[in-house]
């Protein structure tokens, strides 16, 4: 499916990453994790002592972190200022700070521009790409041929995520997911919404393979 953009949006822990990577691997597409980019900027802010709850302070430095995203779905990479932050961006300090940082318009403007450039590059290479995030179908790439909105019950999301994290506390994980959802859905700029034309897939009762198959079928229909 060359030339195709698959926009995969949804709440935290709905299975976006595993689904996006699986779809990209099965169809031979590139893969971009935009959440990792917001997390990497957050990691940079924390390392540089920026108060992540001070929107003006974050905005003032939004152009500084130099990000590089690798687009291979079987081995995605993310660096900031040349440093590999793949592990650091999944830590609790980043989980707690990423939503306020992502609500800052200057951060979003910068990352949306970078994301569009990466998508353009993949398309220019004759490839297609699966892009996951919160605002891909609504803001970053409204012309995506396939738009999917993934959701799942909070308790299902929390137990999956806690298991991924090697058995962290499910109740605490659920609180952290819900806190992020609330900020992401309530922010003024590019809140999490179901994009026009998106297909809603509730993953609560499905296995990962079943969800991947559903999205692969949607891609087959358009291209
Ligand atoms: O997808 P992930 O859970 O890694 O995203 C982390 C955070 O990054 C989200 O909670 C949200 O605040 C932010 N984000 C965003 N827009 C995107 C992707 C992620 O605001 N396109």
TrEMBL record:
Instruction: Tell me the residue numbers annotated for binding ATP.
Output: 10-18
Q: Which domain of life is it from?
A: Bacteria
Q: Which enzyme class?
A: transferase
Q: Return the InterPro entries for the record.
A: Cytidylate_kin, Cytidylate_kinase_dom, P-loop_NTPase
Task: Alphabetically list the UniProt keywords.
Answer: ATP-binding, Cytoplasm, Kinase, Nucleotide-binding, Transferase
Its Gene Ontology biological processes? Answer: pyrimidine nucleotide metabolic process
Give its E.C. classification number: 2.7.4.25
Return the similarity comment. Belongs to the cytidylate kinase family. Type 1 subfamily.
Q: What is this protein called?
A: Cytidylate kinase
Q: Which organism is it from?
A: Nocardioides anomalus
- Lineage summary: Bacteria, Bacillati, Actinomycetota, Actinomycetes, Propionibacteriales
The UniProt gene name for this protein comes to: cmk
């Amino acid at each position: 499916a060359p030339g195709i953009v698959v926009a995969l949006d949804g709440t935290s822990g709905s299975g976006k990453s595993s689904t996006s990577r699986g779809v990209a691997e099965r169809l031979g597409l590139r893969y971009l994790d935009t959440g990792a980019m917001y997390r990497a900027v957050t990691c940079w802010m924390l390392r540089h002592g920026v108060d992540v709850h001070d929107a003006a302070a974050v905005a003032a430095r939004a152009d500084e972190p130099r990000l590089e995203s690798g687009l291979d779905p079987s081995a995605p990479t993310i660096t900031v200022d040349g440093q590999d932050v793949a592990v650091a961006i999944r830590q609790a300090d980043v989980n707690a700070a990423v939503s306020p940082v992502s609500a800052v318009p200057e951060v979003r403007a910068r990352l949306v521009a970078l994301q569009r450039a990466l998508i353009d590059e993949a398309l220019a290479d004759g490839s297609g790409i699966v892009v996951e995030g919160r605002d891909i179908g609504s803001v970053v790439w409204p012309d995506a041929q396939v738009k999917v909105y993934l959701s799942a019950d909070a308790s299902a999301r929390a137990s999956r995520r806690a298991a991924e994290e090697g058995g962290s506390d499910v109740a605490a994980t659920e609180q952290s997911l819900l806190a992020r959802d609330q900020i992401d859905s309530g922010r003024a700029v590019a809140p999490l919404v179901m994009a026009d034309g998106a297909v809603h897939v509730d993953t609560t009762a499905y296995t990962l393979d079943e969800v991947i198959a559903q999205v692969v079928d949607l891609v087959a229909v358009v291209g």
